[in-house]
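quick q for whoever's on today - can somebody do inverse folding on this one?? i tried earlier but teh output was garbage lol. tokens:
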């Protein structure tokens, strides 16, 4: 059959299907929003139930074991706090030793500067002059010998160290007392030469003056 013979049949079928397409277009399509809302509500309900189940404690250990665990944790915290306290005390002691004006280290530093600046010491030993303490077993001389004591209610500190120039050596002796203001003041400071005739260079000596003031009777208030 030729195409010219089929053309009338195709045209007739096209016009017959148009009413069916128009009827199908007028049929309403069911909406999915209600089904989606129902599914979402069920999902939220499931999540809420799961969250409620996770809030329940899962610790099923015996009471004695839990008490033992808490006691162990408390003991660990006590050890940590004790360590922090000991460390704080050590830091305070180091800070006081290094930065306090009344510390032995600062007393040694101040006395050494006075000795190095004294013209008589420069002439006797030869500049430049360096200072050092007692020699340790390892050959170091960082330790400066000193002692503190209390006499008649007054605190004293006594110290000894060594100085050396390009020609000779000497030993430095000093003693300080704590005054009413809370500061140390010199009782004496002198340098004893290590070579013959072992003469002494006195930088400061207030012993007679301080002892005389101490021996004076205290004045009684007039009533």
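ok took a stab at it. sequence:
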């Amino acid at each position: 059959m030729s195409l010219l013979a089929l053309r009338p049949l195709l045209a007739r079928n096209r016009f017959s299907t148009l009413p069916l397409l128009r009827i199908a277009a007028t049929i309403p399509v069911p909406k999915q929003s209600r089904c989606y809302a129902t599914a979402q509500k069920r999902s939220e309900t499931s999540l809420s139930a799961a969250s409620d189940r996770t809030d329940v404690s899962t610790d099923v250990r015996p009471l004695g074991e839990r008490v033992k665990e808490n006691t162990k944790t408390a003991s660990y915290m006590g050890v940590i706090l004790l360590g922090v306290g000991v460390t704080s005390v050590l830091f305070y002691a180091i800070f006081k030793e290094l930065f306090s004006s009344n510390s032995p280290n600062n007393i040694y530093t101040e006395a050494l500067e006075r000795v190095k600046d004294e013209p008589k010491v420069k002439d006797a030993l030869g500049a430049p002059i360096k200072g050092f303490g007692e020699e340790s077993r390892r050959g170091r001389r960082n330790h400066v010998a000193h002692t503190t004591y209390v006499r008649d209610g007054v605190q004293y500190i006594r110290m000894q160290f060594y100085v050396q120039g390009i020609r000779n050596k000497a030993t430095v002796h000093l003693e300080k007392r704590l005054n009413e203001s809370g500061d140390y003041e010199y009782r004496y400071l002198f340098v004893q030469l290590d070579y013959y005739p072992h003469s002494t260079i006195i930088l400061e000596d207030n012993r007679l003056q301080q002892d005389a003031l101490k021996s004076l009777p205290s004045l009684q208030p007039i009533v």
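fwiw The radius of gyration is 50 Å. also Strands lie at 130-132, 145-151, 154-164, 169-178, 184-193, 200-205. so keep that in mind when u check it
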